[in-house]
């Protein structure tokens, strides 16, 4: 993993380990409903199966992270299953979270730079993810559109309580 360019002063990128899960859970849960509330044990498992688990730190405190999975991961997610069933293999972004206090500092772009670089390194032609349509998340949809993501479709998940847009972007930039 290479360090993305243009990280703000004082922000560093590092690989996450399962022991980070306790620190990540409150950051993750504060971003709900954009991402599901997730107990630390489940976050630790995601980190362990991820092709790319990376976090951003400021002053030794995690202020953002992304967890992305390669094809073939042992992961029972409805959205991951949708992308896995497609002919085009992809690096699937399960979640990307930026602390509220850090939003607007281009940290999301930095994390996605790492995701696109990893997809290319792995020889995967696409990066995929989902963004909530209901409950709505228009800011995230606009952010992903600026990064070149296009909608492949939508689906209801979590027993119909959430509807997501299923998005993909070419890995090569």
From TrEMBL:
Gene3D superfamilies to which the protein is assigned, alphabetical: 3.40.630.30
Pfam families, A to Z: Acetyltransf_1
Presence of keyword Transferase: yes
Stated name of the protein: N-acetyltransferase domain-containing protein
Keyword Transferase among record annotations: yes
Keyword terms of this UniProt record: Acyltransferase, Transferase
Molecular function via GO: acyltransferase activity, transferring groups other than amino-acyl groups
Chain ranges of the N-acetyltransferase domain: 11-170
Highest taxon, organism lineage: Bacteria
